[in-house]
Amino acid sequence: MATVGIVMGSDSDMPIMAKAAEILDKLGIDYEMNIISAHREPDEFFQYAKTAEERGLKVIIAGAGMAAHLPGMCAAIFPLPVIGIPMHTTSLGGRDSLYSIVQMPSGIPVATVAINGGANAGLLAAKILATSDASILAKLKEYSAQLKDQVVAKDAKLQEVGYKNY
């Protein structure tokens, strides 16, 4: 059963949202992924958000482009954590999406990652789930150890060949 919902308003968001899915796959966390427009199909959106908890979702990751209403509207309906990913936009570079998420009214929080921060959204969802799941916590610790090993290996290469030959 999926514990994380990944939702986006357009397939143009897929490259960024897929990064969240890749992290969840790597950590063995089940998720569902949907394209739902809060503006173009409001009835379907409300049905998605209203039934998310009973479907077993514990966290929703929602992409926010242009008008950027999807994360905030999910948070208004879904009683559990929502993570917003502001999408880079051509007109304002994603700042419009970022501001839309971080300026939610009091009582309707949405966690926010960097513009196009799909991977970090997946990691944040995993960390939320890990507060009550020791197996996910162990996988996150292993993931962090792998990140450290990558940096150590890159530094060893730099020390071996020098920056001019790197």
Give your account of this protein's structure.
This protein has 166 residues and is α/β, with parallel strands linked by helices. It is built from six helices and five strands; from the N terminus they run βαβαβαβαβαα. It has a five-stranded parallel sheet with strand order 2-1-3-4-5, sandwiched between helices. β4 (82-86), α4 and β5 form a beta-alpha-beta unit. α1 runs parallel beside α5 (118-130). The chain is globular and about 60 Å long. It starts with a strand and ends in a 5-residue tail after the last helix.
- The strand order across the widest sheet is 2-1-3-4-5
Give Rg in angstroms. Answer: 18 Å
Give the overall average pLDDT. Answer: 95
Low-confidence stretches: none
Helix proportion range: 40-55%
Number of strands: 5
Secondary structure elements and pairings:
Layout: E1 4-8, H1 14-26, E2 31-35, H2 42-51, E3 59-64, H3 70-77, E4 82-86, H4 95-102, E5 111-112, H5 118-130, H6 134-161
Parallel strand pairs: 1-2, 1-3, 3-4, 4-5
Helix pairs in contact: 1-5, 5-6
